[in-house]
Specification:
By secondary structure, the chain is an alpha+beta fold. It contains two helices and six strands, in the order ββαββββα. The strands form two sheets. It has a four-stranded antiparallel β-sheet with strand order 3-4-5-6, with no helix packed on it. A two-stranded antiparallel sheet has the order 1-2.
Length: 120
């Protein structure tokens, strides 16, 4: 579930790397929180200031500190910033010290039910 993503936004300053000259990147940082496909889509829209007046988009910005989650639709597992649990049985979780609150479980379960109804 760990996927590296690189976003290169070249600036005006040139630097040398391994004998090559290239433009130094403007965006620097590291994100340890859970992010998904919708978050990437939203971030690109906001970074390039694209018009979204007729389109809805969801997710949190890749560079924000908002908590988020991703649902593995095949296994019905939910990946959160600090652990994983099963929508089928919230007692199944990793790591062993991680416990999901009833409010978080209900919120994500209702989100999944609504999402499935919208797809149907």
């Amino acid at each position: 579930y760990h996927i590296n993503a690189f976003l290169y936004v070249p600036g005006d300053k040139s630097i040398k790397v391994n004998g090559y000259e290239l433009k130094e990147g403007l965006v620097k940082g590291h994100q340890d929180l859970v992010r998904g496909h919708m978050d990437t889509y939203r971030s690109l829209i906001e970074l390039f200031n694209l018009k979204t007046t007729n389109n809805q988009y969801f997710g949190c910005h890749l560079f924000s500190h908002e908590p988020s989650f991703v649902i593995d639709n095949k296994l019905q597992d939910v990946i959160l910033d600090h652990g994983i649990f099963s929508l089928r049985n919230p007692d199944l979780h990793h790591p062993d010290t991680f416990n999901v609150s009833r409010n978080t479980f209900d919120y994500i379960k209702n989100f999944k039910i609504l999402n499935d109804a919208l797809i149907e």
